[in-house]
Amino acid sequence: MPRFLACPSRRFCFTRHLFTRHLFTRHLFTWLLFAGLLASWSPLSANAAPGKDAERPPNILFILADDVGVDAIGCYGGSSYPTPRIDALAKQGLRYEHGFSMPSCHPTRITLLTGRYPFHLGHPKWGTFPKADEQKTVAHLLKKAGYATAIAGKWQLVLMKDEPDHIAKLGFDESCVFGWHEGPRYYEPMIYQNGKVRDDVKDRFGPDVYVEFLVDFMKRNRERPFFAYYSMALCHDVTDDLEAPVPFGPQGHYDTFVEMMQKMDERVGRIVDSVKELGLADNTVIVFTGDNGTAFSYLHTAENGKYIRVPVFSMYHGELIQGGKTKLTNGGTHVPLIVVGPHVQGGVTSDLVDFSDMLPTFAQLAGVPVPADWKVDGQSCARLWGDYEAKPRTWAFAEGSRGRAWVRTQRYKLYTTGEFYDLVEDPKEQTSLTQPSADAAAVQKELQATLDTLGV
C-alpha cells in the first residue's frame, strides 16, 4: 500500500475521514454562497446613478393625456378648466416650458415607442405600426432591464380584433385598452384585456377601468421596477364611425370638453395618489404630457344618426383661442410636460424636449443602453431628473401631413417649406421673416443645417 494511504488504525482512519469531509462541506458551502452573490450582481445595479437605490432603477409612470395642449392646463396659463391635480404636480416637480409633440396622436405615439420620427420609419399609415420595428420599442428595452410593462387606455396602432396580440408583440406584458374604432371607450365600453374582450364592464365608465387596471398592475409589481403607461382616453371625443352612435353618458349627451377635462384631472390625481398609497413615491418617476394640441371641436350629441360637433375655445393667458390639433403651430404641438420624482429638480425649465426623447430618457433611468442600430432620433432629457449625464438639446422637431415639418429653438421656427418665424414676436405665425436680424439669420442657418442632416 502506498505510504500516503497508510493508516495506523481503523479508528484513526475513520476519524480523519470525517474531519476531511467536514472541511470539504464547509468550503463548498462558502463557494456556493459566493457564487450566488456574483450571480445576483448585475450591470443594472452597477450603472445606477449615485444617490439612488443601488439595487433597482426607478419605476416609471407615464401619463399621456389625449387632445390636451398647454392652453387647457392651469399652470401653463389656461383658465377655462379646473386642473388642480395637474397643477399640484407642476408645483411639486419640474415643468417644461418647451415640450413638443406631433400635431396628431398617431405619429406622436409612433415616436414615443420607437424614439424615431415617423418619416424615418417610412411614414406609417394611420392606425399601423411598422412590423420591422416591433422589437425596437421602449417597452422591449425596459423589459431587458428587468421592468414589468403595462399599458391601459388607448392603443390606436392596430384594430385589436385583427391582431389581439399586437400589444404584447411590442413589449407590453399586460394591457387593458378600448377597442379603437370597434366600440365605445367611455360608457358601456368595449375593452380588451390582454387581448381578450372583457364581459364585465358594460356598467362601468371606461377611464375608471383603465386606472384600476394600472393601479393593480403597480401593486402586483411593486417589488420590481415597472413601466406603467397610462394612455388616457380623455379628453378625446367618442368614436363616430360605427354603425350606430355609441351610448351617451347619464346626462343624455356625450361629455362636454369641460366635463372631460375635469374627469381627466381627477383620474390623473387618482393614479398619482395610488403611487403614494402603495409606498412607491420614493422610487417612482411620474411624467405627465399630452399627445397633441387641444381638440378644435368635440362630438356633443347624435340626432337621427347624425353627429353634432361643438367647437372648443379656451382662455389662454387671457385670450380666447380655439384648439389647434392637427396644425403645426403651437396650438397643435405645444403640450404640457411635467415630471415628478424623488430626485427631480423642481421649478420651471426652458429645455427643449420632443417625443423622440422619451425612449432614450427612460433607457437612461433604467440603466440600459439603446442599441446603436435602432438609430433613435432623440436624446435623454433626464439632466434635471437626478444624477444623470445629459445635455439639453438645441432644437425640437415635428412633422405634419404632406411632408411638411419644422425644426425650432425656444424662439425661432423654420419650416421645410421655407417659412421662418420669431415666436416671441409672432406666436401665431402671421408673418414669415424675410429680412431677419443678424442673430436670427444665424439661427436660421443652423436650423436649415439640421433639416438637411435629418433628411426630411
TrEMBL record:
| UniProt cross-references to Gene3D superfamilies, sorted A to Z | Alkaline Phosphatase, subunit A
Coiled-coil annotation reads: none
**UniProt cross-references to InterPro entries, sorted A to Z:** Alkaline_phosphatase_core_sf, Sulfatase, Sulfatase_N
Care to name a GO molecular-function term for this sequence? arylsulfatase activity
- Alphabetized CDD domains for the sequence: sulfatase_like (cd16151)
Task: Identify the Pfam families for this entry.
Answer: Sulfatase
Alphabetically list the UniProt keywords. Answer: Hydrolase
User: EC number(s) for this protein?
Assistant: 3.1.6.1
Q: Which family does it belong to?
A: Belongs to the sulfatase family.
Q: What is this protein called?
A: Arylsulfatase
Source organism (scientific name): Lignipirellula cremea
Q: Which gene encodes it?
A: atsA_29
